[in-house]
Amino acid sequence: xxQLKKQTISSILNTKGVRKLSMITAYDALxxxxxxxxxxxxxxxxxxxxxxxxxxxTLSITMDQMIYHTKAVCNGAKNTFIICDMPFGTYINEDxxxxxxxxxxxxxxxxxxKIEGGANKAHIVKHLTDNSIAVVxxxxxxxxxxxxxxxxxxxxxxAQNIQELIEDAKAIQKAGAFCIVxxxxxxxxxxxxxxxxxxPIIGIGAGIDVDGQVLVWSxxxxxxxxxxxxxxxxxxxxxxxxxxxxxxxxxDISDKKFPSSEEIY
Length: 265
Ligand code: KIV
Known about the structure:
The chain has helices at about 10-15, 30-35, 50, 65-75, 95-105, 120-130, 145-150, 160-175, 185-195, 215-220, 240-255, and strands spanning about 20-25, 40-45, 80-85, 110-115, 135-140, 180-185, 200-205, 210-215. It is an alpha/beta fold and about 260 residues long.
């Protein structure tokens, strides 16, 4: 079985152009433990508000909820680099961002935080990195903009937007971020953005010409089957396996086949 060493910021930076990075989300200790040492990073994504919390977008998750889940993930995956997503509204200015990021560092063992935003959030990234917080950026399709943009809009469709995304990536890099998640971007644009910076770009729905990939665990393992975004590859039919197993359990109870003589004290 494959076992990766825990990454550091310098080892992550050194992978650019050498090998592709792997990232997966996790929301609890149980799954984090299964992913521990299997991937370069685990992201405690605010997507947990949807797949774990059953909400229709990420916007209602709170800082305390993210901290609760990040603690659980850190307990489960002690040998993997862990990133905590900062919820909507928790980094609207430098002081608020620092106070919330400090809470993440004080109350969890997360290695870094992630915030959505390009050049318009560079001053926040700079304030955080100047004060010893490790920051992952997130540009392109930003799920926290779903209500203000009226939906999830694919980016990088025209030359002007591609240029804006390149400027975003450069601004976030200059502000001190060590890595950027690039979501929902046309592959040709993603390639240009990846080539424009020296920090790794981790794509999701951004094609192959990036420095690594991230997927939401419940999408890639087939547990969240309400819809399947085009960019998701389903590595397991998790929902079917679970439902078939529960059907079998109920059948065994009804047939008086469970528990057997080996399953009693
Ligand atoms: O919240 C999340 O899971 C994310 C990924 C989609 C990158 O931000």
